[in-house]
Amino acid sequence: MNKYISLAFFIIVVVSVGLLIGYSTAPGAWYHSLEKPPFNPPNWLFAPAWTLIYVLIAIAGWRVMMIEGLSGWSGRVWFVQMALNYAWSPVFFGLQMPFAALAMIVLLLFSIIAFLLLARDDKARWCFVPYAAWVAFATVLNGWIAFAN
Length: 149
Prior knowledge:
Layout: H1 2-24, H2 29-33, H3 46-68, H4 73-94, H5 98-118, H6 122-148
Helix pairs in contact: 1-3, 1-4, 3-4, 3-6, 4-5, 5-6
């Protein structure tokens, strides 16, 4: 039973912090004025996509912590990618610095790939596959916006 409580805790914390950061740095007039690529998804898609991704990130982190604890490399990389993930929106939307955000999202993508390579749990790795794909796409979007504006 304790493992399900810790899973719930992981999900609640990861999703809550992600949503709090997302809502506190919601795209405003500055973002809406930017030139965006023709493949830019509609704004309504981002909140549900990130919510699902945050649930998967939490499950992956929980699985790694259950198997390796905090001492394993994949657990450390999980925390690094979370810090980069949470920092991206304030840099891009809050500080309105798309080039700094681009550098950050590239580091985030590398940390996600590192997690995929380091995690010993297949289910944790599979939870990160959609995340890696979404962040790779977001990196392209961020780069396009940075260089077009």
